[in-house]
Amino acid sequence: MYNDKFYLEILKNKNSVFSDLSDTDKETLFNHHSCNRYKKGEIIFKEGNRPTALICLVEGKVKIFKEGVGGREQIVRLARPGGFIGYRALFAKENYLASAIAIEESIVCSIDKEDLYHIMENNVQICLKILQMTATELGMSNTRTVSLTQKHIRGRLAESLLFLIETYSFEDDNSTIKAYLSREDIANLSNMTTSNAIRTLSTFAGEKVISLDGRRIKILNLSKLRKISELG
Amino acid sequence: MYNDKFYLEILKNKNSVFSDLSDTDKETLFNHHSCNRYKKGEIIFKEGNRPTALICLVEGKVKIFKEGVGGREQIVRLARPGGFIGYRALFAKENYLASAIAIEESIVCSIDKEDLYHIMENNVQICLKILQMTATELGMSNTRTVSLTQKHIRGRLAESLLFLIETYSFEDDNSTIKAYLSREDIANLSNMTTSNAIRTLSTFAGEKVISLDGRRIKILNLSKLRKISELG
DNA sequence: TAAAAAAAGTGCGATTTCGCAATAATTTTA
DNA sequence: TAAAATTATTGCGAAATCGCACTTTTTTTA
């Protein structure tokens, strides 16, 4: 158990809401979890499905997105290892309002709803932590709404790049974003057309704010990127 | 106590998360709450403030909004009696990310953070209900992000009107929206300029979808309004 | 490894929405 | 109740962004 990625990322990891559980509870969760592997592009769940478990991302990257007007996709969130997927619908006792797709080879582990609630009902502190996490995400969602609606294209794209850095951090060179999204995904994250994402990335490269090599994005001038994001 | 609005709206009301509390707990909350009256336009809290209590709206209407690029306002949520204000920041243990202003004469009651947490820590079911409420609002926020970014002006305005109906319902005539917002607030709710809100409202009136009389908005064709909202 | 498919990049006219000024109507204040 | 302030309305020109077609490059598949 102690070498298992689920244990390490979800139960032991200091940032996980489960890190303060008793060893007994951790063992219970460990004994009840099940894992799945998804290839790039595979669907983990779709809008409208009923959640039956808490899905934990243990390895890889997953996009959570909604389909809007004319099927146009808006990425709501990107998950990283140690994070949960689809927990909102589970705790709201609703069907999924968004879909989840692996954007690279990923491993997810599931904790059955009943097992989870059993532990939550006997542990207020876990509930409060999950509540805190949910409330924090609600704040980010509201902030995001304002950014996506009010900032201009350059500001939105800059913000998305900063968001990618925050979520997936840099490679060892300390400047290459450790995420290799398609131009389309970058566009769907930033509320713009693919053409405009491409165009604006090129402009940033021309301004020496970033450099591009296929899907590899290197940040050359972080403070300028921040300024572009702030000015909208 | 049993005739008090705080008791009726917040503790007794079946829709409130506190409705299932024991009588003892209800009494404790009742004995610890304090009330305030705000005139139209008065600030209840501002972005950056530290939350110290759970604020409950007992009477009136309150807008929760964020200031974006160039001070431009985006209304994030509208509260109605029986609802909470600023609970997100409280449970996220953050400062407020939005401001709250009474849009009509309002009465709000506060439950001190410590009193509230004391009850929550001894009552998992309350925590789970608050979690459910927060997760539900997160879903609405994500849905709203997509609407506000992808729908065109007509769709956004139609959605806002439907949202006002859902939140504040109709007057006794079953067609006048029981909310009298300024054109500016309607615009800030719908992510558009005041001019465009006015223009588009006029267009709707010309199409006999609504009728206008100052701030009074009467819905003449609800299904058409729904269609406009859905088509974007 | 050649063909097919998918993704990336570019150009430009069409639309949407904004910005702002000017005016009118309504509400508040002295 | 008259003056001042706020809110509502209207009209364009300007700017931002989209839509879409077309080309090039990269990746996948047979």
Kindly describe this structure.
- The structure is a homodimer of 232-residue chains.
- With 232 residues, chain A is of the alpha+beta class.
- Chain A folds into 2 domains: 2-125, Jelly Rolls, CATH 2.60.120; 148-231, Arc Repressor Mutant, subunit A (Orthogonal Bundle).
- Chain A is 46% helix and 21% strand.
- Chain A contains 9 helices and 10 strands.
- In chain A, the strands form 3 sheets. In chain A, strands 1-8-3-6 form a 4-stranded antiparallel sheet.
- In chain A, a hairpin with a 2-residue loop joins strand 9 (210-213) and strand 10 (216-219).
- In chain A, helix 6 packs across helix 9 (222-231) and helix 7 (183-190) crosses helix 8.
- The longest helix of chain A is centred in the middle third of the chain and has 27 residues, at 124-150.
- The termini of chain A are far apart.
- In chain A, 46% of the residues are buried.
- The model of chain A has no long low-confidence stretch (mean pLDDT 96).
- At the A-B interface, helix 3 and helix 5 of A face helix 3 and helix 5 of B.
Would you report the number of β strands of chain A?
10
Radius of gyration of chain A: 19 Å
**Order of secondary-structure elements of chain A:** HHEEEEEEHEEHHHHHEEH
- The CATH architecture name of the largest domain in chain A reads Sandwich
Give the termini distance of chain A in whole angstroms.
48 Å
Give the CATH class of the largest domain in chain A.
Mainly Beta
Q: Work out the oligomeric state of the chains in this entry.
A: homodimer
Name the beta content range of chain A: 15-25%
Calculate the mean pLDDT score of chain A and round it: 96
Structural class of chain A: alpha+beta
Total number of helices of chain A: 9
How would you describe the shape of chain A?
A: globular
Low-confidence stretches of chain A: none
Number of structurally distinct domains of chain A:
2
Q: What's the story with the biggest beta sheet of chain A?
A: 4 strands, antiparallel
Largest beta sheet of chain A: what is the strand line-up?
1-8-3-6
Topology-level CATH name of the largest domain in chain A:
Jelly Rolls
| CATH homologous superfamily caption of the largest domain in chain A | Jelly Rolls
- State the share of residues found in helices of chain A, binned by percent: 40-55%
